[in-house]
Amino acid sequence: MPELPEVERARRRLEQLAKGKRIKKVLANEDTIVYSGVTHAGFATACEGKIVKAVKRKGKNFYLVLSEKTTPIFHFGMSGTAIVKGEAGPIYRAPRAKTEPCIWPPKYAKAVLTFADAETGEEVGDWAFCDARRLGRIKLIEAEVPEEVPPLSTLGADPFLDMPSVEVLAAALIKRHAPIKAVLLDQNGPLCGIGNWMVDEILYQARLHPSHPSSALTLEEVTTLHHHIRDVTVVACAVNADAAQFPSHWLFSFRWGKGKKEKDFILPSGEKTAIKFVTVGGRTSAVIEAVQKLPKGVVQKTKAAVKKGKGKRKAKEESEEEGEEEDEEENEEKNGDESERGEEKVTREKATSPYFDERVKLDDRAMAEALPLSPSFKLPLDLSPTKPRASTRASRSRAV
DNA sequence: ACTAGACGACGGG
DNA sequence: CCCGTCTTCTAGT
């Protein structure tokens, strides 16, 4: 499950293994899709012999800062994973990935790096980048400062390393007319590293419907959202992306296996409700309708036609889709955008967000402590399920 | 056995 | 700016 926390986990492990070490050998398996802009052989040649100065991450990308200006960069895509020789592969959520112990090189390995002590040449460990679905990417960045060129330079702010203030986030969000979910998933938008499960978790915690227009968010809503973006990110990273340790009130453990239309979910209040699955921004979205309401005037575009694209079209069958509301009359009637979208763009953006006052300056912490959550839905600011381990948690204290 | 769905991102309409 | 596509494995039917 490679979203920010899973990638951060992979980064940490690779850093432990490789920082200060020499890349003694690279076994690169040919793959003209995963290797992008470089051949497997070219990648191996570029890495071999170099010393790893640092292992960094931005969003869902992680990369090796080497002793030269070539920077190997990895992206897990949907199914990528990293495995250290002798260790079981990561199991983010069970049951999953029946990791065969110790077959090496592992199945679907695209690159296997052998690290060695820079002085003695003694081998210290092997690491493999694997990807069954081949949607992951391995590239080389050729630049003095890798962060200054694509794909890193175009990314939004990383919510773990560099969370923007409420004001900056609000200003960015209200400029976007897409559903809030689509905006948060946009890696080159305001933030990066957030993927499908994170955004659903965040929006549920923040009590916002994924279809809520980003431009219509109030400052209060952005403040709550900001809090939960930080919260979900920091907590997931604090437990090293191990879903077994995620807080029990999270949607996470309930959302998978969408085989059925709905699944049961227990609210923190103890009430039982259903998880609804809707498609927003082309992705399956888990929604708790009891707490995630759309703002007035916005209707869910639940076109029954959004089934499966191919020839699956089930003819009519409209008889049993009364569950939706076919009223898509008017979302907004005041926009009158028919005229032009070019010129008066700016004024129109402001007009769609009558609540946001740029002059207001808020204190992050003060607002976080005054979250507009209902009493029965209050979330523990002190997130319980994290074990007493206090090793890699420097940032936890002043989080949120 | 068969097939919808999957933790992502990009290109096109 | 939404949708299809790429690709292949898994889990549910």
Automatic annotation (TrEMBL):
**Renumbered residue ranges of the record's region Disordered:** 299-360, 372-400
Q: Where is the composition biased (Basic and acidic residues)?
A: 333-360
Q: Which UniProt keywords apply?
A: DNA damage, DNA repair, DNA-binding, Glycosidase, Hydrolase, Lyase, Multifunctional enzyme
Where is each Formamidopyrimidine-DNA glycosylase catalytic domain found?
2-136
Compositionally skewed regions (Basic residues) per UniProt:
304-314
Q: Which BP terms from GO are recorded?
A: base-excision repair
Q: Which GO MF terms does the UniProt record name? A: damaged DNA binding; DNA-(apurinic or apyrimidinic site) endonuclease activity; lyase activity; oxidized purine nucleobase lesion DNA N-glycosylase activity; zinc ion binding
Name the GO cellular-component terms.
nucleus
Reaction catalyzed: Hydrolysis of DNA containing ring-opened 7-methylguanine residues, releasing 2,6-diamino-4-hydroxy-5-(N-methyl)formamidopyrimidine
Stated family: Belongs to the FPG family.
Q: What is this protein called?
A: Formamidopyrimidine-DNA glycosylase N-terminal domain-domain-containing protein
For bias kind Acidic residues, which ranges apply?
318-332
Output the Pfam families linked to this UniProt entry.
Fapy_DNA_glyco, H2TH
